[in-house]
Write a structure and sequence with these properties.
elongated; alpha+beta
Length: 326
């Protein structure tokens, strides 16, 4: 039977990234080891640690919840675990505080527990939630798009055979657009020309014998492997909304996509005309809107602006030419 000496336990806790704390329930004094000081970003010169001192680093949105949980730990029967955010050098770090409640293992009026940095786990959970939300959003969009494509394919088809042929072609084009948004794993992309990218994404919505329905006028410009997926996602979201609510939902509707580049700034203008009357939403808080805005800022170093005029929607995408080429 091995004997666990202090140096062995310390080696194990260091390897696991465990920080130690002790709380005197009478004086409210908290004693922490060196790793805990680093985890909380508290100067080691601060010898008299209390919850109020640590609370300065707790994220404001979590402070009252943590304060209440901290005060209630003595009444909890058995093990407890509290996850919360702290502000660390301008960034957010997730900490898990764990211990035994109901005065279990209390010694000399002192309770013991550990802190763990669970930032990576929380970020992975948030990423999975975002992915699940994104996939749910896309599935709903695809069903709506399929319905819209069927409706305006029926307007131009003379026979059911023509309709089946045209609808199949449109659905296949939609599939190619989806590949741009979510590339197939293992298949390397070399990027694309901006004009080709826009044309592929808008191909499912173009109607036969309506040559002026969709007009694309962009300069010859390369879009890099990383940026092509992001830009495709943004343009696909705009096309989806247009097919549901905008100019692409009516046979009379038109869409113009143009682009200008000046220095490091690339401006793409999306102009819809001839669609149903539009009303600006009170807030752009839908999942699709948040996804587009986040993608424009984070991946393309730019912004997106919407103008709901009486004539139709105009969307202005501003991007970094350097980011676009990556």
């Amino acid at each position: 039977m091995p004997v666990w000496h202090e140096k062995h336990l310390r080696a194990a806790t260091d390897a696991a990234g465990v920080a130690l704390w002790a709380w005197n329930v009478d004086t409210d004094a908290i004693t922490m080891d060196e790793r805990a000081y680093d985890l909380w970003d508290v100067p080691k010169s601060e010898k008299h640690i209390t919850f109020e001192i640590l609370s300065r680093n707790i994220h404001p949105a979590d402070l009252e919840r943590v304060r209440s949980a901290f005060a209630a730990t003595r009444a909890i029967v058995g093990a407890y675990e509290i996850d919360f955010r702290i502000l660390f050098d301008g960034d957010i770090r997730w900490i898990s505080a764990r211990g035994q409640g109901d005065d279990a293992d209390i010694a000399d009026r002192t309770m013991f527990g550990i802190f763990l940095d669970v930032t990576q786990r929380k970020q992975a959970e948030e990423a999975n939630e975002l992915l699940a939300g994104e996939m749910s959003h896309r599935v709903k969009n695809l069903l709506t798009i399929a319905t819209a494509l069927t409706q305006f394919t029926s307007r131009s088809a003379a026979t059911k055979e023509d309709m089946a042929h045209e609808l199949t072609n449109r659905l296949m084009a939609l599939g190619r657009a989806q590949d741009l948004i979510r590339p197939i794993p293992g298949r390397k992309s070399e990027g694309a020309l901006l004009g080709d990218l826009v044309s592929i994404l808008l191909a499912p919505y173009d109607e036969r014998e309506a040559s002026v329905r969709i007009r694309v006028s962009v300069p010859k410009m390369n879009v890099g492997e990383m940026s092509s997926t992001t830009l495709a996602l943004v343009l696909h979201e705009l096309a989806t909304n247009s097919a549901k609510y905008g100019s692409l939902s009516l046979a009379s509707g038109t869409l113009d996509v143009s682009c200008n580049a000046h220095g490091d700034e690339v401006v793409v203008t999306w102009t819809e005309r001839g669609g149903p009357p539009l009303k600006a939403p009170a807030m752009l808080d839908g999942f699709g809107s948040k996804l587009v805005q986040r993608s424009m800022a984070a991946q393309l170093g730019g912004s997106i602006a919407f103008d709901w005029s009486e004539e139709g929607l105009v969307v202005t995408l501003i991007m970094s030419k350097y980011r676009l080429a990556r």
